[in-house]
Amino acid sequence: MSTLVLLTITGLGLGALYFLIASGLSLIYGLMGVLNFAHGAFITFGAYAAWWITTHVEASAEAELILATAFGLVFGAVLGALIELVFIRPLYRRPIEQVLVTVGLALALGALVFGIWGADPKLFPDRPGEEISLPSWMIDTTTILGARIPNDRFVEIAVAVVVLAGLTAFLRFTRIGLIIRAGVENRSMVTALGIDVRKTFTFVFAVGGALAALAGVLSGIYFSTVDPGRGTSLLIFAFIVVVIGGFGSIGGSAVAAVAVGLVQQYANYYAADWLDWSGAGDVAVMFLLAGVLLLRPEGLAPKVAH
Amino acid sequence: MMTPRRAVVPVLLLALLIVLPFLSVDIPVLFGGPLDSPGTLNLLALCLVFAGVALSYDLLFGYTGLLSFGHALYFALGVYLPAIAVTEWEWSLPAALALLAVVAIALPLVLGAVSLRVTGIAFAMVTLAFAQAGNVIVQTNPGGLTGGDEGIILNFDPLPDFVVGIVNTKYLYWLALGYAVAVFLIARAAIGSSAGHVWRAIRDNERRVEVIGLRPYPYKLLAFVLASFLAAWGGFLWLLLIGVTPEVTTATFTLTLLVMVVLGGTGTRFGALVGGFAYTLLDNRLRNLAGEERIQDLPDVLRVPLSEPLFLLGALFVAIVFFAPGGISSFPARLRSLVYRRAAKESAS
Amino acid sequence: MSTATALDVNDLHVYLGESHVLQGVSFSVAKGGVTALLGRNGVGKTTTLRALMGLVPRSRGSVEVQGENVTRLPTHAIVRRGIGYVPEDRDVFAGLTVEENLRLSERGGNGRYDLVYDLFPELRERGRQRAGTLSGGQQQMVAIARALLNDNDLLLIDEPTKGLAPLLVTEVAVALERAAELSTILLVEQNLGVAKRVAEHAVVLDGGRVVYEGAAGELLSNPERVRELLGVGGAGH
Ligand SMILES: Nc1ncnc2c1ncn2[C@@H]1O[C@H](COP(=O)(O)OP(=O)(O)OP(=O)(O)O)[C@@H](O)[C@H]1O
Ligand SMILES: [Mg+2]
Question: Is A300 on the interface with B (CB under 8 A)?
Answer without folding.
Answer: no
